[in-house]
Structure prediction request, 96 residues.
Amino acid sequence: MYNRRIMATIPVKKDVIEDLAHFKLKRICTFIEEILGRWKETSADVFIEKARKGILEDAESDAIEIRQLLLEERKLRELLSSVHGERVPAMHINSD
Prediction:
């Protein structure tokens, strides 16, 4: 009858969190590279700017997707930083 959300804290080993985050970061990098490859671009930032200015016709949805992937990447790096206690560098290689 009632939809109640129950929150639980589950202990997870630090290694598991790191492995999952690194795996997801690699997947994000791969997705970004695939999108950039379709448009024959090498930089996520340049691609987003070209899409925003209308230089690349019909690139808006891919630019939005790349922005979301970069945001997700940043959140994962922040998670890893909190686990490590130090800054984790960006993994995507195609951004200026």
In short: Confidence is low (pLDDT under 50) at residues 92-96. The first helix runs from residue 14 to 38. The chain has one domain: 14-83.
